[in-house]
Specification:
alpha/beta, Rossmann fold, seven-stranded mixed beta sheet, 40% helix, transferase, Class I SAM-dependent methyltransferase, S-adenosyl-L-methionine, methyltransferase
């Protein structure tokens, strides 16, 4: 999957970037809502950060935020975007299945917009273990993911049962369907927001 993402960035075929504007509106509502993750200050991680738009939003909110992505071009663009926005954020080129050696520990909030749902079953298990290792007790994970389905080279998605099974050391706080804010092609993937808290 990572080879496909690297090629997509090189060719400029990144539909998740334009969809990210609508996702950002939902993200803002969730961050400000009743079941919101903990408020900053503290360490936050944007897993699969892409070109950094959500990382920058978290930095603006006061988090000490690190974005990690496996695509060099995405990380380069994220650093340039943060500099232009005048915010402090760290961007790391790395593998989300090996988080501790790339980003360290002590995180209170993790944002995952489309990272988990694109991983293989084995990668998902490693990723969940790494998130548990690098976060503090009570930390929050806010995850955007498509529902399960066959989409060719696109992410295969996930569902509530798999999320709860994979993140066994976490408690599911909410499972929220798309509120109709996303573009129609994105809504066809049955997108959901999962909010979990680490035990």
């Amino acid at each position: 999957m990572i080879t496909w993402y690297r090629l997509a960035y090189r060719l400029g075929l990144t539909p998740w970037e334009w969809a990210g504007q609508s996702i950002g509106a939902q993200l803002t509502a969730l961050l400000d809502g009743q079941d919101a993750p903990p408020a900053p200050p503290g360490k936050a991680l944007d897993a699969g950060c892409g070109t950094g738009s959500h990382t920058i939003e978290m930095a603006r909110r006061g988090w000490r935020v690190t974005g990690i992505d496996a695509v060099p071009l995405a990380v380069t663009r994220a650093r340039a975007r943060a500099e232009k926005a005048g915010v402090e954020a760290t961007f790391v080129l790395g593998d989300v299945t090996e988080l501790e050696k790339s980003v360290g520990r002590g995180y209170r909030f993790v944002l995952d917009i489309g990272c988990f749902h694109g991983l293989t079953a084995g990668e998902r298990a490693h990723y969940a273990d790494e998130l548990t290792r690098i976060t503090e007790p009570g930390a929050s994970l806010l995850m955007f993911a498509f529902g399960p389905g066959r989409r060719g080279p696109l992410p295969r998605g996930t569902d509530r049962a798999e999320v709860e099974r994979t993140f066994a050391g976490w408690r599911l706080i909410s499972d929220v369907a798309d509120a109709g804010l996303l573009p129609r092609p994105v809504r066809r993937g049955n997108p959901r927001w999962f909010h979990l808290a680490r035990s």
